[in-house]
Specification:
Layout lengths: L3 H7 L5 H17 L1 H10 L5 H18 L4 H20 L8 H13 L3 H15 L8 H20 L9 H21 L1 H6 L7 H7 L3 H5 L5 H19 L4 H4 L5 H21 L13 H16 L13
Helix pairs in contact: 2-3, 2-4, 2-6, 3-16, 4-6, 4-8, 5-6, 7-8, 8-9, 9-13, 9-15, 13-15
């Protein structure tokens, strides 16, 4: 496994300032989401890692801004961020005050990611996410995916493709994000409710004779259990529909995608087992499943005679 320094060199990133920018972006990912960072470093083809690290850092930045503060504060912050992103994309390499945006703009230009994915993501952040008020029905959930979650995943994963994803690849990631979002909403049900967010369409509560208060008070009733079981089944069906995503991923990213899918399935199983307890606590991956996955990757690398990854900024 090459050091971070050699990983940047292998991706053709030689300018010292840009190397610092990519290192800044990678460190942000490592601090915020260490498991995805380690998955990228351990499992992705090294030349893809800097682009994808910058993409994940950008996606996380937009998510954080869209979810922080009052509605007025979110709107103002997203408008300012959109202006900075547009300026970074229009600037030359190394220009602009924000190292994360400099790295992402360079990655998007170098990989040829179509700008409409970035524009759609920022617009969706300002509308579908920042103004989120729940879903009346399944159609509203699908509209949320189209506006925000789908372009959000493609500003990151789209960097694996030179020239961006084609129509078939983009559609594959649309199916993937449908499953991922369903699992995420179920796993985070307790925390979302505590923050005033109900992410299950209200029409489905009505179908099961469940009220929002039933969920907020974590009532363990047959109706509540039936609703949660039905939502898990929807998520399981959506997850099964992602089977073709590996064939659509770049070869160098397929181990990462397989791991992401495996962890989603593990998390959904944990939600299914929790039942109404998912209303009292968020359901994470736990420690065992990610560690098993990363340990297998490290053993495979060791058998190949390669070193485990060094952190961003480490010397070769």
């Amino acid at each position: 496994m090459p050091s971070w320094r050699n990983t940047l060199t292998g991706a053709g990133i030689s300018d010292p300032g840009l190397r610092d920018d990519y290192t800044h972006a990678a460190r942000r990912v490592l601090r915020r989401e260490p498991a995805p960072y380690l998955a990228l470093r351990l499992l992705a083809a090294p030349p893809l890692v800097p682009w994808l690290a910058a993409g994940l850092a950008f996606m996380n930045l937009v998510d954080d801004v869209a979810e922080t503060g009052s509605a007025q504060r979110r709107a103002a912050a997203l408008a300012a961020l959109t202006g900075r992103v547009e300026a970074a994309l229009a600037s030359g390499p190394g220009e602009g005050p924000d190292p994360l945006l400099r790295a992402y703009a360079h990655a998007a230009r170098t990989r040829g990611l179509p700008g409409h994915w970035i524009t759609r993501f920022l617009q969706g952040a300002a509308t579908a996410e920042a103004g989120f008020d729940g879903f009346a029905a399944e159609e509203d959930f699908q509209a949320y995916l189209d506006a925000y979650a789908w372009p959000g995943v493609l500003v990151f994963t789209g960097l694996q493709y030179e020239g961006g994803p084609d129509a078939e690849q983009a559609a594959g990631w649309r199916a993937f994000v449908d499953a991922a979002q369903r699992v995420d909403f179920l796993a985070d049900l307790s925390g979302d409710l505590a923050e005033g967010r109900l992410c299950i369409p209200r029409a489905r509560l009505d179908e099961h004779g469940v009220t929002r208060a039933d969920l907020e008070r974590a009532r363990d009733t047959p109706a509540v259990r039936g609703l949660l079981a039905a939502e898990c089944l929807r998520a399981r069906t959506a997850l099964a529909a992602t089977d073709g995503i590996l064939d659509l991923a770049a070869p160098g990213l397929r181990p990462v995608v397989a791991t992401m899918t495996e962890l989603m399935a593990h998390q959904l199983t944990a939600v299914e087992r929790a039942g109404s307890a998912a209303l009292r606590r968020d359901i994470g991956y736990g420690f065992a499943a990610p560690l098993r996955t990363l340990a297998r990757a490290r053993r495979a690398r060791s058998r190949a005679g390669l070193r485990p990854p060094a952190g961003p900024g480490a010397r070769a």
